[in-house]
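In response to reviewer comment 3 from the previous cycle, which asked for concrete evidence that the modeling workflow produces usable outputs, we include below a single protein chain processed end to end. The sequence was submitted unchanged, and the resulting structure tokens are shown without manual editing.
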Amino acid sequence: MLKRTIRTWRARVARRFGVPLALLGLVTGFSPLASSVAAQAGTMQNYIVLYGSSAVPADAAASIARSGGSLVYSYDQIGVAIARSDSSNFRANILKDNKVEGASATASFATKLNDDQASSADASGPPPGDLPNAPATDTDTLSPLQWDMRQIHTPEAHAITGGSPAVLVGDIDTGLDYTHPDLAQNVDDANSVNCVNNGVPVPGKVAADDDNGHGTHTAGTIAAAANGLGIVGVAPNVRIAAIKAGNADGFFFPESVVCAFVWAGTHHVNVTNNSYFADPFLFNCKNDPVQRAIWKAEQRAIRFAMQQGTVVVAAEGNESDDLSHPTQDVTSPDTEANPPARTVHNDCVVIPVEISGVIGVTGDGHNMQANGGYLKSFFSSYGVATADVVAPSGDSIFGRNAEAVNGRVLSTWPEKFKTGSLPPGRVIESCDPTAPNVCAFYAYLQGTSM
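The workflow returned the following structure tokens.
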């Protein structure tokens, strides 16, 4: 994952989903940071406006205008509007509307790593009945370097099926390189979108092109094709949609995260991958009036997607924190160079992984523990109440061995970011593909009748 995508290229059930083939056979936290996100006079900013009902009222545009702003986009499905204003009094003014439950400027709420208002109307989902399936091979040029796939036994699973093209995965990330030879055949243009434009969806794979690299890397772990070139993903036959919510600097602003999940829900995405935390706070505190509006808007969007049948998979993070017993946050807001340490408790959560119903993933390397099982990656966060599964993420310190020489995981990378030190096939070794592994596994399962 990225630096801000749960830090530097960032168990409800504490057991691994390590063998897909076998499974196929089978107290108030005080936040001193509220003042740091106050609106600055004369600075145009985006705002999340959270309404008390589950719909945006008909007079929202007029109310926002009276408060000194303009309506950018309405997410009527979840009662959230995106507004813009350069007034330092906008939040105070809009909160006078008794229909508004909360509001917050979003500029300081990005998780770090055009103007067309696209329709978010329903798109058709997979056809009913049996889904098409075909086996896949693991004999691509760089397959011998994919220790992570052998750890979870994907070659054995691929002998049965490589997943179904009727299954749609949404990679909520920084976009993906739709021209990449290991991804191009599986990219779904119609269901791809760029949500970075103030939370307004701009559809298509071109709009969702990756200008950071992180999204292309996660996409390869999920759905790199078995085509004789480069690597093979966990589910090489599924379709993958780029849902671009992270910008070129790797920030995931709240309006983009809301846009991404509403898009996933309305476009019947079967499963989403989320290898980031929603900026700028690693821990969003529900009892902070500013952070609460952001937390609740994102929660509504995530729940909306899940209510439409979307499985949401998210990484625990790369902070080596126990998310079930947090004590302090030394990362937030990550829009600041040297953020102050703040005390946090269980009323402060990491989004999206700590939203109820989200499948949380922690990571391991490739060295065994004395009592069995692989060692947890040194950087991977965890939590008995948040981590549901474990997947390979690499470990450059404790995960090196003859098979994993540098302990890292190989995946796809955009040509435009390639350096002379990279191996052929537009790939790079890095961390942390925990969530993409599990996301792809769920996509794989949805394409089988087993």
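Residues 2-38, 114-128, 421-425 have pLDDT under 50 and may be disordered. We consider this sufficient to address the reviewer's concern, and the full set will be provided in the supplementary archive.
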